[in-house]
């Protein structure tokens, strides 16, 4: 990470001719130091090193006062040193400031490649949706420090510049070069958002994005949001790990709200990281191997955890039979205020 940043800094310095400026400053220091030594040798300075120190201190306008000219010639050299020094330092600082401003400007416009590891990439942007997602995602202390990169071509500037560890890359998420700029090869997970909740045409972009992500990084964890449930099979064929059909879930919740009033409030609490109880997932401890599901449930209840489902080889068993035997590698879903450690 440090090496990459250092190399980029060197490239920026080279582009701004900072090498020439540095060489000029060094030459000026030795020239003024040499002239000062010629006039002040044996008086205010005893060595060329002292003269060089005086020149640098004078250029930077620090003015310690430990060395000052006593001869007419030395004072003339000091006048030129001050005039040239102020000009040099001003030019140098302006150049460095320009490099920093250009770098920050590129970052805000989404034109800068990110250098991160283990980050989350969000493909697609909807202001309310993305901001709420980030709040909820970081409410879980396991993910609160994970950097996030937003990839979209629908906005021209960084949407959240003041939020720590939020980065922006402008471009189509279906473009391989854009995903490289977002650091896909070093990311830990990707989420593809539907930028519109009504336009089913956005599903085409979602599918193409997932296909490209899976081609570039087959092992990365991907989740995608789709509008039309009929496209679930296409995303599944693209090896998307988690598919969230907006219309299907919202319709099912509306049906449940009519048949069992209050169920949406319960579900809202369970899927929020901000308050109340949540749904968690953990690997079943080996002490429960070869025991039954009901035994796992009863033991978990003692710690105020409600077990309601098992995952085995990517197959999900919600409220399985009490006598279902736990096997090594099984994972379980439970409701609790805190995650089982």
Task: Explain this structure.
The longest helix has 37 residues, at 72-108. Helix 2 (18-40) runs antiparallel to helix 4 (72-108). The strands form two sheets. Strands 3-2-1-4-5-6 form a six-stranded parallel beta sheet. The model is unreliable at 1-6 (pLDDT under 50). The protein folds into three domains: 2-108, Helix Hairpins, CATH 1.10.287; 120-249, Rossmann fold, CATH 3.40.50.720; 277-336, Regulator of K+ conductance, C-terminal domain (Alpha-Beta Plaits). It has 341 residues and is of the alpha/beta class. The chain is built from eleven helices and ten strands. Helix content is 45%, strand content 15%. The chain is elongated, with a radius of gyration of 32 Å.
Largest sheet: spatial strand order: 3-2-1-4-5-6
CATH homology superfamily name of the largest domain: NAD(P)-binding Rossmann-like Domain
Total helical elements: 11
CATH class of the largest domain: Alpha Beta
Residue stretches low in confidence (pLDDT < 50, at least 5 long) are 1-6
Total domain count: 3
For the termini, the CA-CA separation is 32 Å
List keywords for this structure.
single chain; 341 residues; alpha/beta; Helix Hairpins; Rossmann fold; Alpha-Beta Plaits; 3 domains; 6-stranded parallel sheet; 4-stranded antiparallel sheet; elongated; disordered N terminus
Describe, in short, the structure shown:
This protein has helices spanning 2-15, 18-40, 48-59, 72-108, 127-137, 176-181, 202-216, 232-237, 246-259, 263-270, 293-301, and strands at 120-123, 148-152, 166-170, 189-192, 221-226, 242-245, 278-283, 306-312, 315-318, 331-336. By secondary structure, it is of the alpha/beta class.
